[in-house]
From TrEMBL:
GO terms for molecular function: glutathione transferase activity. The lineage of its organism: Bacteria, Pseudomonadati, Pseudomonadota, Betaproteobacteria, Burkholderiales. It comes from the Bacteria. One of its GO terms (biological process) is glutathione metabolic process. This is Glutathione S-transferase. It comes from Bordetella pseudohinzii.
Length: 241
């Protein structure tokens, strides 16, 4: 059985968290909007068609007769069905809690460059974005990274403990990947304060299960996405003396 993943065809976005889990677990799926003759218009048409449980927005997954929306909800389903999360209920709820926290930092990272409205261009809200970025760099990035560092303090190197990754490890990897892209100077200044988080990023980047995907055209490049690099929104590098 092949799942149907519906997400925008030209950005990693929130769909990337689902793609990473599907790819790492070698789960058959169709990335529907990226297929010929489908695209963004086909996604919109599919999303708006009559369903018992319609999605609010992409990503959504069509699986086993269900339409599952919201990234954390999709990953909870995949985690339980395909062994990508702990087998016990407390463990599954723990990784879901972490995934929901990841959703929070992703939303805040997006709102750095779109603090007023997603419907406005960045250039229309640049003054507000400069102010928002300063607080995100100084207060929010360290707060989130310190939390994930603490979550990894139990040992083993994975967020759920044990000897194997779970879907939330893949998601945290992508968050760090995005922060390194969007805020390279700031991350260069603070990354050493979160050695376990950075080690997890490197460990996931080198997972054998992900190499074929990460080096393929299926892995979309960053750009006009949740994580965006604007030089003026990043810290300036410190001068070496």
């Amino acid at each position: 059985m092949s799942y149907e993943l519906w997400y925008w065809s030209d950005i990693p976005g929130r769909g990337e968290f689902v793609r990473l889990a599907l790819e790492a677990a070698n789960i058959p799926y169709r990335d529907c909007a990226r297929e010929p003759q489908v695209g963004s218009q086909g996604l919109i048409e599919d999303m708006l068609r009559t369903r018992q449980h319609p999605p609010f927005a992409p990503p959504y997954l069509v699986a086993e007769g269900m339409t599952l929306g919201q990234t954390a909800n999709i990953l909870y389903f995949l985690g339980e069905r395909h062994g990508l999360a702990p087998a016990d209920l407390p463990g599954r709820l723990w990784v879901n809690q972490l995934q929901l926290t990841i959703a929070d930092i992703v939303a805040e990272a997006h709102d750095v460059h779109h603090p007023i409205a997603a419907s406005l261009y960045y250039e229309d809200q640049q003054t507000e974005a400069l102010r928002r970025a300063a607080y995100f760099r100084k207060e929010r990035m360290p707060k989130y990274l310190a939390y994930f560092e603490r979550a990894l303090s139990g040992g083993g190197g994975w967020l759920a403990g044990g000897e194997r990754w779970s879907y939330v490890d893949l998601s945290l990897y992508h968050v760090i990947f995005g922060l390194l892209y969007a805020f390279p100077h700031r991350m260069a200044m603070i990354a050493r304060d979160y050695p376990q988080v950075m080690a997890l990023h490197d460990r996931v980047a080198n997972l054998p299960e992900l190499q074929a995907y990460l080096t393929s055209p299926r892995r979309l490049a960053m750009g006009a996405d949740l994580f965006r690099h604007y030089v003026e929104l990043d810290d300036k590098p410190t001068q070496q003396t």
